[in-house]
Amino acid sequence: MTITYDPSHAAYVDEADTRGELTRVFNVCDECRRCVSLCSTFPSLFDTIDGHTVQHDDRDAGRLTPEQQDRVVGQCFQCKLCAVDCPYAPGRHERQIDLPRLMLRAEAMRRANGHDAASRRSTRALINTGLINTGLARTVTTSFSSAVNRVTGAPAGSPRRRLLAWLTGLSAVRRLPTLATQRFSSWCRLRDVHTHRVGARSLRPVVVYPTCLVELHQPAIGRDMVQVYERNGIDCALSQARCCGAALLHAGNVKKFSKAASANVELLADEVRGGHAIVVPEPMCSHVVRHDYPMYVQSPDAELVAENTFDACEYLMRVQADGESGLETDFV
Question: How far is the CA of 14 from the CAs of 39, 66, 76, 195, in angstroms?
Fold first, then answer.
């Protein structure tokens, strides 16, 4: 097997090689069990190995079938908690284990070899979040957000939810987010008629990359953030970048993710060269921009974007650390 998390590597989506690497890593995780309380991935793995141990009197992850491996892979939702304190992480140990990136490799392998979950209607409905932010879909979802919310916000198992499940494959009891009646980008474009105070200091301006969460569902987070920034003399503009593509990446669709990432890198790099820092109020998306874009786009612009992208609170902490008078916090 090959220890690689590079999507351009020849063995990245080779099934035998990837499954061999899964076996190696699963054996190490079973020996360690440090992450057992973090999510369902690890209990699922350990319970499966325990079941084989009863039959074969050993603890060999190599006895897992491809279906059992895939069940473990499917439990991972890329929270990255296991990578934070893993004693075997690259740079800490010669075993070089990065489980979240291995899960991404496994999903890409499954898709490339034609036996992944991406063909399910529910997966297609969830991974194409960027489509809601373009063209006719943008107009429809904004104009009819209340009608959409009456369907997605209906009680679990209700007739409306069962109809939605029939159309999309999404479970009738799954909790779904509601759409905002005014998008964050719409609020930004109308800000010239708002009353806002810019602080006395003049700091590096930023572009706010709202991502799907703030743009579509929780624009109040972005509005509050902009007001805090401008109170502290940080001019805010709206980034022109679209959905970061995280859902595509996590579903193993490397081709579409790389295309979306490349388009965003081009836009974001121009904004950085225009003198702006990039601020992201949603941590998963900022992680994708900073850590996944350089790996999947592999260009100087991707590195430039990653180096100038910050989480919303991280940027304020830098201002607090570097500024002469610290943050102004006299606001509601």
Answer: 27, 14, 20, 57
CA distance 147 to 115: 36
At 149, the amino acid letter reads N
Give yes or no for a contact between 261 and 245, defined as CB atoms under 8 angstroms apart: yes
Cα separation, 185 vs 165, whole angstroms: 30
- pLDDT band of 129, cuts 50, 70, 90: low
Q: Report the C-alpha gap between 100 and 41 in whole angstroms.
A: 11
pLDDT score at 195: 45
| 176 neighbors 152 (Cβ within 8 angstroms) | yes
Phi, psi at 149, each rounded to 5°: -65, -30
Tens of pLDDT along 52-100?
876 767 788 888 999 999 999 988 989 899 998 899 998 888 889 999 9
Cα–Cα distance, 37 to 46 (Å, whole number): 12
Q: How many CB atoms neighbour CB 5 within 10 A?
A: 16
Cα angle 82, 88, 89 (rounded to 5 degrees) comes to 65
Q: Whose CA is closest to 283, among 214, 237, 223?
A: 214
Query: Which backbone phi and psi does 307 adopt, to 5 degrees?
Result: -70, -20
- pLDDT tens-digit series, residues 166-179: 888 888 998 888 88
User: What HEC string does the chain produce?
Assistant: CCCCCCCCCCCCCCHHHHHHHHHHHHHHHHHHCCCCCCCCHHHHHHHHHHHHHHHHCCCCHHHCCHHHHHHHHHHCCCCCHHHHCCCCCCCCCCCCCCHHHHHHHHHHHHHHCCCCHHHCHHHHHHHCHHHHHCHHHHHHHHHCHHHHHHHHCCCCCCHHHHHHHHHHCCCCCCCCCCCCCCCHHHHHHCHHHCCCCCCCCCCCCEEECCHHHHHHHCHHHHHHHHHHHHHCCCCEEECCCCCCCHHHHHCCCHHHHHHHHHHHHHHHHHHHHCCCEEEECCHHHHHHHHHHHHHHHCCHHHHHHHHCEEEHHHHHHHHHHHCCCCCCCCCC
